Amino acid sequence: MGLYDAYLSMRHRRSPADPPAHVAVVITERDLLEQGAYDTLEAFLDWAFEFGAERVTVSVSVLDEAVVPTLERELREIETPKPVAVRGPGDTERADAPIQVSIGLGGKHEFAEVVRSLAEEAESGRLDPDDIDETDVEDRLVFPAEPDLVIKTGAERLSDFMIWQSVYSELYFTDVNWRDFRKRDYLRAVLDFQDRQRRFGR
């Protein structure tokens, strides 16, 4: 088992392509109920920075908003290699930390709040509608950074995740459930990214 991980690490180091600078992972509240789920998350963060990431976003999709305060508390207490910013459904403060955690803050809701803010500023005369561009949107997002690689465990579908920011992201789906996610699974995702030719919508 260790030899295979070492082999993947060697392939990563020898790849001429850059690793993803910003990695995002999409998990669910149910994933975090599994035994060892937070240990996996701590390890995931270590792997990401070990293998070249400069920023990591963790998106936790939530069905029951009643669990958000508990998740926020627990996720603020995990051991991390870099500072963390945790944001929930009602938060509007920009997240700029190297590790960003979104709990139940859906992409549709985030984008709708941006549109509402722009509409209010235009109506009040503080902003000319003809001057609105992509920068105005990005300046108002809670999570402004665009992921290079988005990893989704357990199923080949994305939840309501960073709709604006991930438009040019490379997507990687694995049928490995979060509770079973290992270093080799992360390295496979990174190597897959390094083997791709990014087109950024072209």
Overview of this protein structure:
- Strands 3-4-2-1-5-6 form a six-stranded parallel β-sheet, with helices on one face.
- The termini are far apart.
- It has a single domain (17-105, 146-201), classed as 3-Layer(aba) Sandwich (Undecaprenyl pyrophosphate synthetase).
- The model has no long low-confidence stretch (mean pLDDT 90).
- Helices cover 36% and strands 16% of the residues.
- It has helices at 2-14, 37-50, 68-76, 107-124, 134-138, 183-195, and strands at 22-28, 55-61, 84-87, 99-103, 149-153, 170-174.
- The chain is α/β, with parallel strands linked by helices and 202 residues long.
- α2 links the parallel β1 and β2.
Secondary structure elements and pairings:
Elements: H1 2-14, E1 22-28, H2 37-50, E2 55-61, H3 68-76, E3 84-87, E4 99-103, H4 107-124, H5 134-138, E5 149-153, E6 170-174, H6 183-195
Task: Please provide a brief summary of the model.
Helix content is 36%, strand content 16%. With 202 residues, the protein is α/β, with parallel strands linked by helices. The chain has a single domain, classed as 3-Layer(aba) Sandwich (Undecaprenyl pyrophosphate synthetase), CATH 3.40.1180.10.
